[in-house]
Amino acid sequence: MNRASLFVPTAPRDWLLPVLAALLVALTLFMAKLEPLFAAAFPHLDVVVYQRESFLQLTLDHLGLVLVSSLISIGIGGAAGLFVTRATGREFEPMVSSLAAIGQTFPPAAVLAIVVPLAGFGFVPTIVALSLYGLLPVVQNTIAGLGSVPPTTLEAARGTGMSAAQILWRVELPLAMRVIIAGVRVSVIINIGTATIGSTVGAQSLGTPIIAGLVGDNIAYVIQGAVLVGLLAIVSDLLFERLERRFRYGA
Amino acid sequence: MIELQGLTKTYAGKNVVEDISLRVESGEFGVLIGPSGCGKSTTLRMINQLIPLSRGRILLGDEDVSRLKPEQLRRRMGYAIQSIGLFPHWTVAENIAVVPNLLKWPRARVDARIDELMNLFHLEAGEYRDKYPHQLSGGQAQRVGVARALAADPEVLLMDEPFGAVDPLTREVLQNEMLRVHEQTRKTIVFVTHDMDEALKLASKVAILNQGRLVQYDRPIELLVDPADGFVSDFIGKADLGLKLLSRRWVDQYCRPPCLERDSGAGRHSWEVDADGRPLALHGGRLSDDGEARTAVNGEWIATPEMTMKEALSRMVWFRVMVLPVIDQAGKLIGEVTMEGVMGRQP
After folding, report:
1. pLDDT (0 to 100) of residue B288
2. Which are the contacts of A147, defined by CB distance < 8 A and separation ≥ 6?
3. Which pLDDT does position B344 carry in this prediction?
4. CB contact under 8 A, A161 and B148
5. How far apart are CA A78 and CA A99, in angstroms?
6. 8 A C-beta contact, residue B83 and residue B145
7. Is the CB of B88 inside 8 Å of chain A's CB atoms?
């Protein structure tokens, strides 16, 4: 038994993930079955379950947006974080950190307003806004994670005769991985929530019923979209927590 | 064999290591020692090119190491530092196997080598092979660190204050083990420390550095009796110089035949032995000149030929006897060391 794992509150959450994941899948597939419930809660509405697209389709579209934008954030952010922690790129660290911070201070809605005239409506401007928005946690945590590898460990690695690439792949990245994944986790969770805004510029997502509900004064649509987004975020968070746990090495 | 010729390191116009020339012969245990900032660690790290040298030459055997790629060179030199240098995400076995794996040894050979080294350091392979560094005690982690440095059977072993982070008791155990391992492997070792007792205990030759310069490079006993200057004698410390000298003397150098005759006159002592020649008791030999006092020999107030005279003296003082029996491995009485003997022999 791993001594350090005693201090990690794992037990109460282990049942939470499968339960919430099952709930997410059930709601995605069978939202229409809840029609009587919504009808009872909102008797003044004519249509109480969003039906223009299936919730399965909306969820997959939503995940698509998050997946593509997160991969871009991880690719660019990881590469930038890696570059500024190498000897050749060290002097760029303040610049890269501030650029990533600026990316996050821009409200995604403002980014959409700038990108839509340039790239048109739909998928692309949403991806640009989400990628920029998700960059900061990845960059910050890549820098922090690689910076947290003890200098003596690095010296020992050099002393054994590993090349710079071997030290990076075999020692630095595995030891930094927990912190890097924590950054990706934050980035993905932020993007799951923010992706709903893409629906204002025509990218289909779980934001679509929310926008439709707000425009058409249909609170049931808003709740259906919001509950699925919320569940998606919590389930993803728990999945990342499990992933992080695999990279905990005692200490 | 490793030889430094005019080794110099300049940082910002200042020489932190200046013109150091010395030679550690094959199988020798060389120790670099000096106050902090004297350049001893810098010197060590220049040997495996963790720090580039400014001037001078380093020879490994008859090869100039500057002709070798740093990675290749380091795989031929074991490098051990304080225990935190273990890779925390790898097991004990994986840590030991680093260099053999870099050298692409076949799996079976690596496994056999891991077992051999764990055995050498008395680490139970079944119990510790798959443990992670944070599950080890400081002393165990340090053993793994030295085992890792020895894994690929390097020509030279470089050690940078490897026992600096462990408690004094463990340090003493580790030093004894290091002596044993050196005895068994006959590796050429360059060892950095700031602890004079450690240096005197381990070294076959000690290099004393001060402000980047080599002040004296000699066998420990010569440092003690013939220090090059005031710095050396101050650094060695005068307070227990006599004891330090005795720590470099061994019982077999002072041992003389035992006196077995009972009635050899007043003020004398004699041994009572059993049928197998094992000492049972000492008659006389106490401070009070009483030739009749009988002191039973027990497992603790004995000496062995390979014990240091410092320890033998310590036992005489502790058990308040003027003489200790020297026994061989079978427990047989082969001689005695006496208080007069300690005083009588010139260094």
Report:
1. 65
2. A85
3. 67
4. no
5. 14
6. yes
7. yes
